TrEMBL record:
GO terms for cellular component: peroxisome. Keywords: ATP-binding, Ligase, Membrane, Nucleotide-binding, Phenylpropanoid metabolism, Transmembrane, Transmembrane helix. This is 4-coumarate--CoA ligase. PANTHER family: LONG-CHAIN-FATTY-ACID--COA LIGASE, PEROXISOMAL OPC-8:0-COA LIGASE 1. Residues 47-411 form the AMP-dependent synthetase/ligase domain.
Length: 551
């Protein structure tokens, strides 16, 4: 046993303290700036680094140096403050695909103490209208092609790139390309921004209900930056990352709009994910690190021979997978096909600013199915959902997290905040997990997604993992199907592998041989793909809606 802070006795293997039933991170704690009057933009821009090129547009080849980026941030901040009277606390909407200008907009807005809220370009007009109504922005940034999605909002708009040739009645108040050319003004109003002030208002994926605005502070983002820089040893040399994940999502925003800028690394930006463009960009720009979600990793394994004939991926040193734990088959398949590339994993939520747990080496990733160990300065609890009692090592319950990246709460939603954050700052993740004797977290399932069959609890993830071991199945999702007699039973959506003719009964028989009777799949539907959100999580609510629409 080892001595931790507050004189607590903590098991050095698991990180668990029986005194307060808390798991402590085994990683080196992250350092924090002592200055409370500090915004995340100033924090990032003041960090020393040796990098030259900050961003490369994969499609056009356009490059922005670090001095280009910081000049543009200052110029845009001046325009927003002086010309458009943007003030601390104002909410600014960013509706855009990935772009080398995305981080510039975020950093300029946050430097003023204003709040950035991002939205998915694939969202419907109604979904965007709901977010606008909820967050009440005073200004929007978008591209000409997406202007119709803001119709009816009456928001003044700054165009990021291109000329407005749509019939939109929206008021265009600026052109980003011109605004970032103006001379920064020393006389602009500079309001005091503290680490505790709100920086971002990102909307959670809503996989288990309505999407909610997550309030993150400058301190949350600074802690996130420090964690990312420390995790990848980014202070030790310049790396080249490629941005395949959406910047509007916490995964993309965490890594690219802030984390890598702080280290001097170069980010190659794909405006949208396209496999060939990603691979050719790795080849062309000698990319060293590839953040991705599990489906892309699976594609890299399945098509490895063809890919390696066509592209030189010898520069690649690591892939970083987030969104869902990787199976043994996927990890070992990747190691076999790409032996020189480290495979790392991460676990986080929008509510934890993308930080929570990680595997930081191939050896750690080979704890098959793990989400990793608690991130630096993060604490965890495993809590029995029924009794509320905190549980020890190797017991399954809801994972609670506490640490410097945990959100302030949900925007204008006290009820949701109170049910998710307790008075001591613990975030209820909604994930059923256990932490093993070595401190590794294993996600068993989503708490709210458990299927209740005659009072028994059936974890969909367990059945999905079994389905994915079948040689004729390429992807699968399991949902609760309502039934008058048993309450709910497991239903599977299955994607057959090319050429397969596997039947519904064969799928059900395959599972029936491996699980208890109450866990058996009792209905199967074949689909061409499983709907997932940008971070790779299965959109079960969409499948439940599809399944029950025919009742």
């Amino acid at each position: 046993m080892a001595e931790y802070n507050n004189n607590l006795t903590v098991d050095p293997k698991s990180g668990y303290s029986p005194a307060n039933s808390t798991f402590y991170s085994k990683r080196k704690p992250i350092p924090f700036p002592a200055n409370e009057s500090l915004d995340v933009t100033t924090f990032i821009s003041s960090r020393a680094h040796s990098g030259k090129i900050a961003f490369i547009d994969a499609t056009t080849g356009r490059k922005l140096t670090f001095s280009d980026v910081w000049n543009a941030v200052e110029s845009l901040a001046t325009s927003l403050s002086v010309d458009m009277s943007i003030r601390k606390g104002d909410v600014i909407l960013l509706l855009s695909p990935n772009s080398i200008f995305f981080p510039i907009i975020c950093l300029a807005v946050m430097s003023l103490g204003a709040i950035i809220t991002t939205t998915n370009p694939l969202n419907t007009n109604n979904e965007i209208a709901k977010q606008i109504k909820d967050s009440n922005p005073v200004l929007a940034f978008t591209i000409p092609q997406l202007l119709p999605k803001l119709t009816g909002s009456n928001l003044p708009v700054i165009l990021i790139d291109g000329v407005n040739d749509s019939n939109s009645n929206l008021k265009i108040v600026g052109d980003l390309q011109k605004l970032i050319q103006r001379k920064p003004s020393e006389s602009r109003l500079k309001e005091r921004v503290t680490q505790n002030d709100v920086a971002t208002l990102l909307y959670s994926s809503g996989t288990t209900g309505a999407s909610k605005g997550v309030i993150s502070s400058h301190k949350n983002l600074i802690a996130m930056v420090q964690t990312i820089v420390g995790r990848f040893n980014l202070d030790e040399g310049v790396q080249t990352f490629i941005c395949t994940v959406p910047m509007f999502h916490i995964y993309g925003l965490a890594a690219f709009a802030a984390g890598l800028l702080a280290s001097g690394s170069t980010v190659v930006v794909l405006s949208k994910f396209e496999m060939d463009e990603m691979l050719s960009s790795i080849h062309k720009y000698k990319v060293t690190s590839l953040p991705l979600v599990p489906p892309i990793l699976v594609a890299l394994v399945n098509n490895a021979d063809l890919i390696k004939k066509k592209y030189d991926l010898s520069s690649l040193a690591s892939v970083l997978s987030g969104g869902a734990p990787l199976s043994k088959e996927v990890i070992e398949g990747f190691v076999e096909k790409y032996p020189s590339v480290r495979i790392l994993q991460g676990y986080g939520l929008t509510e934890s600013t993308g930080i929570g747990a990680s595997t930081d080496s191939l050896e750690e990733s080979r704890r098959y199915g793990t989400a990793g160990m608690l991130s630096p300065s993060m604490e965890g609890k495993i809590v029995d959902p029924e009794s509320g009692k905190a549980l020890p090592v190797n017991k399954t319950g809801e994972l609670w997290l506490r640490g410097p990246t945990i959100m302030k709460g949900y925007f204008s939603n006290e009820e949701a905040t109170a049910s998710t954050l307790d008075s001591d700052g613990w975030l209820r993740t909604g994930d059923l997990c256990y932490i093993d004797e070595d401190g590794f977290i294993f996600v068993v399932d989503r708490l709210k997604e458990l299927i209740k069959y005659k009072g028994y609890q059936v974890p969909p993830a367990e059945l999905e993992a079994l389905l994915l071991t079948h040689p004729d199945i390429s992807d699968a999702a399991v949902i609760p199907f309502p039934d008058k007699e048993v309450g709910q039973f497991p239903m599977a959506y299955v994607v057959r592998k090319t050429g397969s003719t596997i039947s519904e009964s064969a799928v059900m028989d395959f599972i029936a041989k491996q699980v208890a009777p109450y866990k058996r799949i009792r209905r199967v539907a074949f689909v061409s793909s499983i709907p997932k959100n940008p971070s790779g999580k299965i959109l079960r609510k969409d499948l439940i809606k599809l399944a029950t629409s025919k009742l």
